[in-house]
Amino acid sequence: MAAAEIPRVTASVVLPKTALQKIFENLQKAGFQLVGPALRDEAVVIGELDTVDDLPRGFGDEQKPGSYRLRQRNDGNWFAYTPGAHSWKQFLLPPRLALYSVKKDGKTWHLQRPKSTALHYAFIGVRACDLNAIFVQDRIFISETYRDPHYTRQREQMFVLAVNCSTASSSCFCASMKTGPKATSGFDLALTELPDAFLLEVGSEVGSEALRSTGWQLATAFDLGRAAQVLQSTQRQMQRSMRTDDLPQLLYRNLEHPRWDQVAARCLSCANCTLVCPTCFCTTVEDTSDLLGAAAGRTRVWDSCYVSDFSHVHGGNQRPTTRSRYRQWLTHKLASWMDQFGVLGCVGCGRCITWCPVGIDLTEEVAAIRETGAR
Question: Does the predicted model carry a pTM greater than 0.85?
Answer without folding.
Answer: yes
